[in-house]
Amino acid sequence: MVNILSLAQQALILSALYALVAVGFTLIFGVGGVLNLSHGASLTLGAFAGHYAAEVYNLGVTGAVLAAILVPALFGALLYLGPIRRVQDEPILVMIMTLVTAVAIESLFLVVEGAGSQTTLVLVDGETPAIAGQAIQFNQLLMFAVSWLLLGLLFLYVNKTDTGRAILATSQDRKGAFLVGIDSSRINLWMWILAGMLAGIAGLFLASYGLGVSPTMGRSPLVLSFAIVVLGGLGSIRGSVLGAYIIGTLEVLTISLVDPRLQGLAPLVVLVAVLLVKPSGLFGQEVHA
């Protein structure tokens, strides 16, 4: 018999994580007009940084979260200041460079950790008392709460701060933004840093959700990000959140009601359908909340 409460719980938690995965990806495209194919590598870096901090250096949950945020943020900054800034007006070159970087990061971890390595990472243990026969793991509750806290702060940041308004202006008209004194290079750098931070914590959470920490764990989230931001509209934050909940729910229903082996099929089906029916997505293709 299908447990509707269990399905709803899984869909809500997984979709919140998916939204966190996709938002950084859509921010970079919305502001810079380029696709960051190293987004999955940022997730992998965040997961491994959190794992090393918690399991190797015994820094606890706080150390794991800080490491998962700071390491991918530094990676994003160095990537932009190094090769990306020089070719940021050439989307194809940016795609090639970020893809090469992603392959290099994955290869590095394959050498260091081994091809078959997969480490389980749990941030907190235990579960809540059962409500209507359904208990929730504290680990999942923490991920859901922090994911929505970060998404809420991002909404406020983009809409209520001067830097947020500069981000919106740059995404809409880079030349116009320059004329009013906005440094688009500085805004782009901040987007790569912010995207790295969000991707890193998303990688840590995905690893803790049950995927484990592995060198190749960034592949599926990259495809997932494509599907979500195309559905929501490239550059739309609320579109990414809505797209994440649509795809996350479809994913849970597919795994639970059809066949677990079809995991990952729902995002691909949605991606193809949206490209055929409404390529601009639900909310268009500029950064907006």
Automatic annotation (TrEMBL):
This is Branched-chain amino acid ABC transporter permease. Keywords: Amino-acid transport, Cell membrane, Membrane, Transmembrane, Transmembrane helix, Transport. GO terms for cellular component: plasma membrane. The keyword Transport applies. It is a multi-pass membrane protein. Belongs to the binding-protein-dependent transport system permease family. LivHM subfamily. InterPro entries: ABC_transp_permease (IPR001851), BCAA_transport_permease (IPR052157). One of its GO terms (biological process) is amino acid transport. The keyword Nucleotide-binding does not apply. Its main location: membrane. It comes from Halorientalis brevis. The chain crosses the membrane at residues 12-37, 57-80, 92-112, 141-158, 189-211, 223-253, 265-283. Pfam families: BPD_transp_2 (PF02653). It comes from the Archaea. It is found in: Cell membrane.
